Amino acid sequence: MPNWVFNSVTFPEKQDFKRFVEKFCKAESNTVFLFSNIIPEPETKDECPKEYLLDETGMTKEGYRIQNDEKAWFNWYAWHCDKWGVKWEAMNFAIREDLNSISFDTAWGEPIRVYEKLARDGWRFSFAACGECNEWIAEGHSENGKIVFDKEECSQIQSDENPPPSCDNEDSTDSADFSGNIPF
Questions:
Q1: Spatial contact of 114 and 9, defined as CB atoms under 8 Å apart
Q2: pLDDT tens digits, residue range 85-129?
């Protein structure tokens, strides 16, 4: 059973929020938020990069078995972790029109790769994530095509652009301070 992380994404302008919901928060007739609407999985074996292919027995190159009934050739776990920053799609999705925000839960961490992609694509937003036991929190925003962390406390975030501070040793003197205000 994973530790759940509560996530919220807020847009500074009502029209940006509405455009985001219209573009990314639909699946057939239901309103949902799917990371695959932003960073889609490969649909066929031919379009899948080699590093995400399973062998004919469903094993990864490291020797792990990945269950995938739909795409027996696809290492969804590695793809999701590498491309989204989390292993599963968002759960418990909600829209707060009065706050120009969406909220959802993820397993183990926030979808930092999704946030990075949205920032590169020009979306302006702020985000917050909190572990279910409040063991860590991260807050940040998009700025000039990148993610900027305003606050991180004992975060497990894995980002190419923003390595997390160390949480291994409470007595560590090499902690980082990401305090600041969201600029909108």
A1: no
A2: 999 888 888 989 899 999 999 988 889 999 999 999 999 999 998
Do 139 and 130 touch, CB atoms closer than 8 A? Answer: no
Phi/psi of residue 135, nearest 5 degrees: -75, -15
Distance (Å, rounded) from C-alpha 60 to C-alpha 39?
A: 22
- Residue 102: phi and psi, rounded to 5, are -120, 155
- If you count them, how many residues does the chain have? 184
The structure's pTM equals: 0.75
Three-class secondary structure of residue 36 per DSSP: helix
Using one digit for the tens of pLDDT, what is the confidence trace for 117-161? Answer: 999 999 999 999 888 766 667 889 999 999 998 876 654 444 555
Contacts of 91 (CB under 8 A, 6+ apart): 4, 104, 105, 106, 107
